Amino acid sequence: MDITDLSDRVFQCYARKQSTYYVNRVYPHWSVSDLRADLIEKAREMAITRKQLFDRQRHP
Fold it and tell me: What DSSP character marks residue 60?
């Protein structure tokens, strides 16, 4: 599907979906001090493990 001349529809689709992704939300009442370093490290470890598992599944 060629969307070259459909920029308005592409924007409408993006705008509709943007509100559904929690990573795009701004929480003004939270600050950097609310972040827990231990959870950030745990998330980092989980992401690395997940990537390693994914890479192994793709590679025999």
Answer: -
First to last CA, the chain: 34
Mean pLDDT, residues 17-27: 69
Residue 27, exposed/middle/buried by CB under 10 A (0-12, 13-18, 19+)? exposed
| Threshold 0.85, pTM exceeds | no
Which helix (H) or strand (E) covers residue 36, if one does? Answer: none
Residue 2 lies in a domain: no
pLDDT score recorded for residue 59 = 59
**How many domains in the chain?**
1
Locate 53 and state its tokens: 């598992």
Distance CA 39, CA 36 (A): 5
| Over residues 16-41, mean pLDDT | 80
